[in-house]
Amino acid sequence: MNVLLTSLLQLFIFIPIIGFIVSLLIPKRYEEAISWTAYLTTGAHMVLAWVFLVLWLIEGHPTFQTVDLILYHTERYTFFISFYFDKITATYLFVGTFLTFLVTVYSRWYLHRESGYKRFFNTILFFYIGYNIIIFSGNFETLFIGWEILGITSFLLIGFYRIRYLPVKNALKVFTVFRVADLGLILVIWMSHHLWGENITFSKLMHPDLIDQVTLGHPELSILIALMLGLAAAVKSGQLPFSSWVPRAMEGPTPSSAIFYGSLSVHLGIFLLLRSYPFWENQTAVVALVVVMGILTSIIATLISRVQSSIKTQIAYSSVAQIGIIFVEVALGFYDLALIHTVGNAFLRTYQLLVSPSVVTYLIRDQFYNFVPRQYIDKDSTSKQIEYSVYMLGVKEFNLDSFMYVFFWDPVKWIGRKLNFVLSGSTGLAIVTSALFIGFACLAYKQSLPQTLLSILPSLFAIIGLIVVLKSFSERMNPQIAWLYVIQNHLWMALAIGFSDQVAIHEIIIYVSGVIVSGIVGYICLNQLRSAEHNVDLKECQGHIHEYPGQAFIFLIACLGLMGFPITPSFLGIDLIFTHIHTDQIVFAFILTLSLIIVGLSLVRIYSRVYLGPHVKTYHAIPLKNS
C-alpha cells in the first residue's frame, strides 16, 4: 500500500499540468470548453486527493520522501526534484483542492463574457501547478520552483484588468515585494548546500541529532539560514513590515483574491515555517523574533482593518492579523493548533471574499435608508485625541507602503539615476561592453594574473553587474537598452563566477545558454515593436498589448527565461553557479543574489511599461488612472 501511495504523488503534479496545457490549446471563444477543462482538472484532483487522504489515514498516516527526477549530478553536487508527504502536506492538500474547485465553479459565472476569460483560467491552473509543487516539495530547490510560479501568477492575476493603470501598478508593486522573499529563499538554498554539503531533503530536517550536530558546528550560518527563512515567510504571508502588499493584491478579480490572498498563497509563509521548524526551533533569538513579529502584525493589522472603507482591504488586513497569531503559534511549538487555525482562516476568508460584492450592495442600501450620524462627546479629551491619532494611522495603513519605498525601492532608483552620467544611452552600453571583453580576456589569462588581483576580480565583476542592472531598472527612455543591460548583467555574473577553480565550463554554458536565447527573442520583439510604433519608451505604461497580444506573450516568455524562471536552463545554471560560492564569500553571494532579484524587477517593469496599461493611442478606450 505504501508503494501505491508513493507512486500516486506524481499525479498531484501531472494532473494540473495536463489541464493547463489543454486549456492553452482551446480557443478563447469557447467559454464552456475552457471552464469544463478547469472543472475536470480541479475536480479530478480533488477526488484523487480525498481518496489518497483516506488511504493514507487507513495506513496510519506514514511520511513519504521520494526523489523523482535528477536534473544534474556530479561528485560534489546533485540537483534533483523531490516530493515529500506528511500531515502538513495533507492539511494544505485538503484545503487547496476543495477551495480551488469551489472558486473554479464560482468563476465560470462571475467572469462570464469577460474579455480575459481564457487568460484567467489559464493563470489559475498555472497557479495550481505552483501551489502543488510547493506543498509536495521534498527539498528547497523543488519548493523554489513552485515559489517562482506563484510569484509570476500573482503578477498576472493582480494585473488581470490590464488596460487599467492601477491594477498594473499594484501588480508590479506586489511583484517587487515578492522578490524580497525570493532573495531570502535563494540565500537559504545556497547556505543550506554549504551547511550540509548536499541538497538537503526535508525528511533529513526531521532528525534532531543531525540538526544539532550541524548547527553547533556552524552557529552563525544556522542563524542566517533561519533569518532568511523568516524573511521569506514574512513577505509571503504579509507580516510586518511587508503587510501593505496584501490589500494592493485585491486589484484582481474577486475569485483570484479569494484563492490567492484569502486562502492559499498568503498561508504559504506558515507552510515554510512549519516545514523548516525543526531547524530553527532551538534558536531562541529567531523564535522570539517570529513571536514579536506575529504579535505586532496582529495588533497593527487589526487597527488598520477596522477603519478601512474598502471591504476587500478590511478582509485582507483581518486575514493578515490572524496569520500573525498563527506565526506565534508556530514559534511556540503548537503545530496542530497552527494547522487547524490555518484551515479555519482559509475557509473563512474565501467565503468573505466571494460574498463581498453582495455584502457591499446590501450595506450601501442599508446606509442609504438607515444612516444615523454618530454623536461625538468629549472630543478634546486625551483619550479621544489618542483614539483619533490611532484612527488616522489606521486610515493611512501606518505608512507601511511608504516604508517599503523609502527603505527598499527609492534607494535602488536613486542609485540607478545617479549612474546616468556614466552609463547614458548607447555610449554607456558601449563602455560596459568594452569592459566586459576586458573581463573575459582576464578570465582567459587568469593563470598569468597575480593572486591578489584574482581574489579581487570576482567581487569587482559582481559589483559591475549589479551597477549595470540598477541602470536597467532606472532606464526611462529606451527599453532595448534596458533589455541589453539585463543581458550584460548575466554575462558579468558568469564572468565573476568563472574565476572559481572548481567551476566547469559546461556549467557556465548551461547558465548562459538560456540567457542568450531568451535575450535574443526579447530583443527581436522590442525591435519589431519599435520599428512599427517608433515612439516606445519606459516613462509610462503604453498598453501595446492591445494591438500586439501575440508579441506580448512571446516577450513575457522571454522575460521569464531571462530571469531564470524554471522553464530554461538558466534556472539550473543559477543553482549550479551558487554552489561554487564559498561560505566566507557572503558579500559576494549577496551581491549576486541582489542582482538576480533586480533583474526580475527590471524585466517585469519593461514588460509592464511597454505592453500593459491604457493604450497610448487615443482611438482606444482609455480608463482613468483612478478607475
Content of β-strand: under 5%
Mean pLDDT: 82
Radius of gyration: 25 Å
Residue stretches low in confidence (pLDDT < 50, at least 5 long) are none
Strand order of the largest sheet: 1-2
Short précis:
The chain contains 24 helices and two strands.
What does it look like?
The chain has helices at residues 2-8, 11-25, 31-58, 87-110, 117-136, 140-158, 165-196, 208-217, 219-236, 245-248, 254-263, 268-280, 284-305, 311-331, 335-370, 382-395, 400-418, 425-444, 451-474, 479-497, 505-533, 549-562, 569-578, 586-611; strands at 64-73, 78-85. It has 24 helices and two strands. Helix 13 crosses helix 16 (382-395) and helix 21 (505-533) runs antiparallel to helix 22 (549-562). A two-stranded antiparallel sheet has the order 1-2. By secondary structure, it is an all-alpha fold. It folds into two domains: 2-364, no CATH class; 422-611, no CATH class.
Tag the structure with descriptive keywords.
single chain; 627 residues; two-stranded antiparallel ribbon; 2 strands
